[in-house]
Amino acid sequence: MFKRIKAWAKNLKKQIIILYLAYKDKRVPLYAKIFTACVVAYAFSPIDLIPDFIPILGYLDDVILLPIGILIALKMIPKDVIADCEVKAKEMMNNKKPKNWIVGALIVLVWCVVTVWVVIKMYQFFS
């Protein structure tokens, strides 16, 4: 059972990389790029719809919502693009994983802006 879960997680990771690569491909329609970007951002984001610390429910979004989003995104992308991205994803997974510091910095920036906004609103509310 543990091996099946590990294989499922590895396949999920590969599909996220495929979507990431497909998002950057010029052959993908705009609507598919937007949806794919949302799915990839959600997969890499530390923010969940249901926080992970909530027992059982916290992991449902990772187990149900993310695979459904991946499935829908893959259906929107042309098959030839997926085939090309699968090859690239396999190479990336065999080699060193890329680090996207720009996206990481953007997520940290968004969290900082949200935190400052909440603090300002709380200060205004309690003043």
Automatic annotation (TrEMBL):
InterPro entries: DUF1232. It is found in: Endomembrane system. Its main location: membrane. Signal peptide: none annotated. Keywords: Membrane, Transmembrane, Transmembrane helix. Residues 32-67 form the DUF1232 domain. The keyword DNA repair does not apply. GO terms for cellular component: endomembrane system. The chain crosses the membrane at residues 30-47, 53-74, 100-120. It is a multi-pass membrane protein. The keyword Transmembrane applies. This is DUF1232 domain-containing protein. The lineage of its organism: Bacteria, Bacillati, Bacillota, Bacilli, Bacillales.
